[in-house]
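Page 37, top half.
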Amino acid sequence: MNAIVSNDASCMYCYKCLRNCPVKSISFNHGKAKIIDEDCIQCGICIEVCPQKARTYVKSIDEFKKFIGKKFMVSLAPSFFAHFDQPYKIISLLKKLGATVVQETAVGAELVSGEYARYFLKNEETVISTACPVIVYLAERYFPEVLGHLLPVVSPMVAHATFLKQKFGDLPVVFLGPCVAKKSESQLVDIVITFEEFDEFIKNENFQLDQLIDELPTPPYPDKARMYPTSGGINYTIDGDWKTHISIEGIENVMNIFSKIDEIKTGFFIEASACIGSCINGPAIRKDINILEKRRRIMNHSANLNTEKNLIEFEAPSIDLHKKFSSKFSKVYVDEKAVQQVLKSLGKDDMKKQLNCGACGYESCKDKAVAVVLGKAEKEMCITYLVDKLKAATNRVVEESPNAIFIYKGNCLIYKNKAAEKLFLDTANLISLLNEIKIFSNRIYEIPDKGFFFVKSFTLPEDSGEVLLLVDMTKEKLQEERLKEIKHETLNKIEEMLARQMRIAQEIAGLLGESIAETKSHFVELRKFMEE
């Protein structure tokens, strides 16, 4: 199981996770990142660097809540005492929640150190510590040539889980630590909870730590192994010779050593840690205090328990701590012709154009092209490719625009598109004419024998030139004139029609007047006749 998961909705084209991923185990599709589980070494770097919080890890608090009120055991990573301000009250809380045993993982580290020491007595070749699961994943998946140098011993967490079950019974084991990779390391541990998770759990459940008493871890106690999570802590625990010991911290530093492992002639003990500063600077430990303060806290805790030592007898438990490592490396064939085709499509078939800027997340343009062929990357992840593509698209839009576009500075014409070329094909004193037209900005200007144009002008940033845009409004202007003409003709027609109607009305009125007068005359004569 891969403990690291992605939230696609929050991923926003930044590629920061890929730039920081030491093994490039992240693919992109439509700008969204996805973890490649079989390639991931679960270092957690992508979680720490993601500005959008689009990467996280599998949380286990809900599973842990099922244990509350029941019997279980807790293994406390040595860095526990560096992270928590009130570690002994946390121990009290764990016991209150049902933990019958709350013991330091450093007990398991003592057992592992014992195996390391015995191995050193039998071998003089260069060996590499295997306490860090990320280092083991790195070797198995990318550097199979170093597998023979890995100390064939389980990690302190696994050793301690085995010890707990043998000594206290077959109860569930909960590991509390600073490491994300531990979540997928072993089935012997039922639940792995990070310090960050437990902090959030305490806050959400509103536990009042000040009301709890201080309680010490369950004995037996370790001797020197509390220093395991610090730089050189493993060598200190086994009383190693510093002349043949070296601490390599940070995945890129470890990869550099792994790639040259055959060049190391002297038998060295390589104490390898994925995190710079070792486990007290793990991905899920607090970052608001520095590693010096964290180291001091661990040393203070060790001093507090020195008066109550109850060292385990290393020979007493019969525990098999042996572990066999196997290669999970898979070489992928990539067609060189396909790679060259991708480079050509990116405009990088010429070596001079291969900037190898790393903005996309890959070390070189060719690495990026290989990733594209493998379906892990997209061409659009290349910023220079995008810029060139945008420029080409913009240039085409400008060049094919039906509007005339001029760019000039002083008396020098910098650019004119096709429409501008046609508009002023052989015009002398073009700059003077453009400056004259510029005065009519945001208005319509008539160019004789050319038409009517809406004028728009502006200055480019950093005083890099003037832009004059002429939008051809001739058709609109002609339509406007024609509309005015139609309106004028319509008004004349209406006026003529009204005049004609007025005349007709007057004629009708005249005829009606004559008829009425004649009728009245006849009526008067008839009345006079009737009265007689």
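Page 37, bottom half:
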Amino acid sequence: MSDGADGEGDSLTVACVDPDGRLDPVITALRGAESIDVRVHEEAATVGAGVDCCILLHAPKTETRPAVDGFEQLDALLDRLPACRVAVYGHDIGSMSTTTRLFTHRVLAHGGETAMTMDPKRTELIVRRVRQAAGSERHAESDATLLHSLLESYPHQIFIKDDVGRFVDTSRVTASEYEFERAEMVGLTDYELMPHGLADDLYEEEQRIMASGDPMLNKVEHYVDAEGRSRWVNTTKAPRYDRSGTPIGTVGGTRDVTEEKRQEHMVRAVHEASRDLVRAGDRTEIGEVTVAIAKDIPALPRVQVALVDESTGDLAPVDTEGGSVYDRYAAWYARAYERGESLFVVEDGAAAVAEWDVASNPVAALLPVGDHGVFGITTGDETVDEFTVDLANILAANVEAALDRAERERELEHQNERLEEFASIVSHDLRNPLSVADAYVELARDDPQDAYLEKIGDALERMEQLTDELLTLAKRGQTVGETTAVDVADAVADARRSISDDRLTVETEAVGTIEADHSRLVELLENLFRNAVEHGAGEDDHVTVTVGRLADGFYVADDGPGIPESERENVFDMGYTDSADGTGYGLYIVQTIAQAHGWEVAAGESEDGGARFEVTGAAVR
């Protein structure tokens, strides 16, 4: 056997103990290498003393093969051949409820040279590890060469100091930080490199470390460099000792964490600035505040929020002055909103993907903010990096929370308005018939007459009518329930059955079906039918109502006296009525039910000169 510098040319004899073929990949790798004589044994007992290394198998039980205990073989082999160098190859270690680290420790504890658990495809590694186990591969580098290699190659600052703070050696990065060569740093102290006040602090710090024996871990320090820029570094220092255990200086490393601190500050700035969103009143103001926040954060130079227009359902940018982001990527804004997923626009904007890490040089990120719209960001000519996306996600989440809050407040305000309406109605309209009934009750006590009782009955009937319609208005304050395909003719029939008035005739044409809440559609029709009777039929008169189809809805027309053109826009106002017996809520209820479905309703004139109400915006099938 030769004594080459690294051993790669040495001739080796390697015994492989392979009882069931699971060591085949190792055997194949060794046979493919030069100067290695491979001898295969089925049992460790047949391995002789003339081998340079023996490889044993340790493997779990399978459906077709029994378990192989490499440690039992190792103990027996070393009892017989104490000088034999042995490596144990662990096959499928993960299935044996252990880890590669524990397996390695166990091999060494049993006297083996090394453990091997690498993938069989790593043939070069297998060969080198076997040469190492056989003692034929030796590192030619001295300790000094290894240290030099470390200090030249390591990408962060490393320094070694003596007991008075002089540099014994440094990494190339440390020396270049002060514009010196490594050799020029030897013997210098912090006093020659930085302000004396800071050098004093560092000297006392290192003296304390040597005296206490305790290392200083991950100390983050801020300073201003020669160009006036703020910098942050993370420093770790520890005492170093001579062979007798006496402290002779310190060793440490410093890593520049300026970018990490910058990002940390930006994240904090986004969170702090987002507090302004809490004070923003409505959707428009929230969008404007968002753009203002982004202008103060360097990593978010161009931000534009597009929100859904409540009347049209279309996306529109909140900040029209900064329209370049939305104008350039409007189609992708729409796609992000429709899909409800983030999109990253790549390169020239011709394509977009849903995952940042597969985007090719993304130039914009479009992040949905719930069902409100889309938060868009671009850095202009540069690509959007991962940190910028993280910042954008933080701000977009705060924007969504602010929009949710504004919507809840608006709904609460609307509910309060409805409560005020109900209070006004109860205090005004119910008070009148109640006063009438109360007055006639007093008269009837002194002079019972049928006329008084009739007046009392009329007042109570009036109160019942008002109460029914107020309850309907209360329901109107809620979102419509589940919608289904409703046959309009069926809804017309249900509405007619609820009105016990022989003066009404309802004729229905082939209207078809529409998507609606059935019970709410019936309520709408009931009010239109009652309106026709109340305004179109006297005590002995009769009114005919026709329900017919429109291209995007349906109409309800009667043959009564109709509605003057000047009053047609006012008839849907709450409390509006031209009838002494009317409440002024019937048509208001019709309009609110229609709007709850996303429809529109308008009053006009029928072919017979009566009233015609058209409900549009509904898909008729």
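Margin note: The chain has 18 helices and 23 strands.
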